[in-house]
Design brief:
The chain has 336 residues and is α/β, with parallel strands linked by helices. It has a single domain, classed as Alpha-Beta Barrel (TIM Barrel), CATH 3.20.20.140. It is built from 16 helices and 10 strands. The strands form 3 sheets. The chain has a 4-stranded parallel beta sheet. Strand 3 (140-148), helix 8 and strand 4 form a beta-alpha-beta unit. Helix 6 (76-92) runs parallel beside helix 7 (114-134) and helix 8 (154-163) runs parallel beside helix 9. The two termini are 33 Å apart.
């Protein structure tokens, strides 16, 4: 199967960080404006250096590369530009529905408020959708606002997010270093959103054991999980028929959606190879799985590329990819 076939397929993307998908050329241009030193001023070389530095098998080291992107996203105008370009790049890859995310608190160093950051992001998204349309590309795009799990602003972010309901923000999430920072630390934010029937997803089971997923699902009532690769530890493959733990059965039976990102998972050490990535085995067992980009810059990838790489390792056809995209669309936070 050729990547062109996958690019032509209408695709759904639920897990893409705006600040992890900047164009290298944009980073260079915006860095000049603020006198930010970069390891290279050549777009291709910068992309290569960032990708290489993300391949050290650690989520913490992987996240360090966001220093560059966050630094150039501290103004309203830059946030608009980056968000617009994000939508255009997704549309050019054949994505027709996207939920992109970011943590507003990271972009307040220049004086913007959390509300300002969300407004700028939504403005950029709207511009991107319209510009894509002028190029003959149709893409529906919404925003998921994240809070940083190692910080203490999640309730504040959740309160602001509710003000943007039906205005382009469709969900909430917590992101950042997972180990040592369980989702239940942010129970107040999730309880507020749950009371208001506002959707959320939770990064879990990526850089922490399965117990992190269990905490997100049981204590925080999540019905979508970002990554969730450690679910594979709850399945015994030593017998002819794989045996699922009760917790794994619950996730399968309740069709809790798993937003998996193979290349990112390989980079952070959450999976060892595309061949061994849990998405294939979980999909075969009836779990609700679809692929995502996570951070297109850091992983030097696209959604088509993620499906291509996994298809090569697991002999998927377009029908398999279509089923995954249908499941992703059914799990999307905007169903209008």
């Amino acid at each position: 199967m050729l990547i062109k076939d996958i690019q032509d397929l209408p695709k759904v993307l639920l897990h893409d960080h705006v600040d992890g998908g900047l164009r290298p050329q944009t980073i260079i241009e915006l860095a000049r404006e603020i006198n930010l030193d970069l390891p290279s001023l050549d777009p291709d070389e910068l992309q290569g250096l960032i990708f290489a530095s993300c391949n050290e098998g650690s989520l913490e080291k992987y996240l360090k590369n966001f220093d560059y992107t966050i630094a150039v996203m501290q103004s309203y105008e830059n946030l608009v530009r980056v968000s617009r370009e994000c939508v255009l790049d997704l549309a050019s890859d054949g994505v027709v529905y996207a939920e992109v995310r970011g943590a507003p608190e990271l972009f307040t160093q220049g004086g913007l408020t959390i509300s300002n950051v969300i407004a700028a992001t939504l403005e950029g998204i709207a511009e991107g959708v319209q510009e894509a349309k002028s190029h003959g590309k149709s893409i529906e795009t919404y925003f998921i606002a994240c809070a940083m799990r190692h910080a203490s602003r999640s309730l504040e972010v959740a309160e602001v997010v509710l003000n943007y309901r039906n205005k382009g923000v469709v969900g909430f999430d917590i992101a950042g270093a997972e180990a040592g920072f369980p989702a239940s630390n942010h129970r107040a934010a999730f309880d507020l959103l749950h009371r208001n029937n506002f959707p959320y997803t939770i990064h879990a089971g990526e850089a922490a054991p399965f117990s992190s997923m269990q905490d997100a699902i049981t204590n925080c009532k999540a019905n979508r999980i970002g990554h969730g690769v450690r679910l594979i530890d709850e399945i015994d493959f030593s017998t002819e028929s794989p045996k699922l733990s009760d917790a794994a059965k619950y996730i399968r039976d309740h069709q809790i959606h798993l937003e998996m990102a193979p290349t990112s998972n390989l980079q952070t050490g959450a999976a060892q190879s595309y061949k061994e990535h849990p998405a294939a085995a979980l999909h075969a067992l009836g779990f609700n799985v679809a692929l995502n980009t996570d951070n297109r810059l850091m992983s030097n990838t696209s959604l088509s590329r993620e499906y291509e790489l996994m298809s090569q390792s697991h002999y998927w056809n377009l029908e398999t990819i279509t089923v995954m995209n249908q499941r992703a669309r059914a799990a999307a936070f905007h169903q209008g």
